Each structure stands twice: as structure tokens, then as C-alpha cells.
Amino acid sequence: MIDPEFKEGLVPVIVQDAGTLEVLMFAWMSREAFDLTRSTGIAHYYSRSRGKLWKKGESSGHYQRIREIRIDCDRDCLLLLVDQEVAACHTGYRSCFYSTIDGTIIGKKVFDPRNVYGN
């Protein structure tokens, strides 16, 4: 196994749908999140804003089941190929990249966040 380099304790992670290759999200992973992701087959990340580990889908049920983990040539970035349940974005869109930089919505909303997370 090739281990990633956890600079400042974290490694950046790009997440793609394993079937469509749509980019779903970007996140950070700590060593603990990486080890849990590998051992459970469910994506775990580290929230810099909350300062803690989180399991993707823990509150929404929208889990990311790992199909493959790739590492870049410098060993400082990971790519996860996942089977995404429902959506990756907490705003209700399938992908976190649902709009262009000028604000044009290009993604499809697939759930109402109020029904999943409450107000």
C-alpha cells in the first residue's frame, strides 16, 4: 500500500461517482479518517470548520461506498471513486459543484435539505 503524505495532518480528497465519473465533492482526510475509510468501505473525512472526524452520510443517510482509492504521483492528494447514495451535497444537489462561477445552476436538486436536516 502506498500511504499518502498528510501535510499538516490532512490530505485533500476529490470524490467522483464511480459510474459516471461526475465530480461530487472535495474534502479533507486525516490519518484516522483514511484508516476508517479503508477499514469500513464508507467515506470518512475531517471537518476543519468543526475540528472533528465525520462519516459521510451519518446524518443524512447519503453514504459514499468506496469502490476505489487512487493517489496522485506526489502522494499528496487522493481520489475516491464511490457509489453515492442520493446526493453528496448538503444543499440538496447531487454534486457540490452544481453551479458555475457566475451563479448559473447547472446541477439537479435531488432532495430537500429541510426534510433531511431540519431547519
How do the helices and strands line up, and which of them pair or pack?
Blueprint: E1 10-17, E2 23-30, H1 31-40, E3 44-47, E4 52-55, E5 64-71, E6 78-84, H2 113-117
Parallel strand pairs: 1-6
Antiparallel strand pairs: 1-2, 3-4, 5-6
Question: Could you explain how this protein is built, in words?
Answer:
The protein has 119 residues and is mainly beta. It has one domain (10-117): Roll (Ubiquitin-like (UB roll)), CATH 3.10.20. It is 13% helix and 33% strand. The chain contains 2 helices and 6 strands. The strands form 2 sheets. A 4-stranded mixed β-sheet has the order 2-1-6-5, covered by helices on one side. Strands 3-4 form a two-stranded antiparallel sheet. A hairpin with a 5-residue loop joins strand 1 (10-17) and strand 2 (23-30). The chain is globular.
Average residue pLDDT:
96
Number of domains: 1
- Class of secondary structure makeup: mainly beta
Low-confidence stretches: none
Instruction: Give the end-to-end Cα distance, rounded to a whole number of Å.
Output: 43 Å
Helix content: 10-25%
CATH structural fold name: Ubiquitin-like (UB roll)
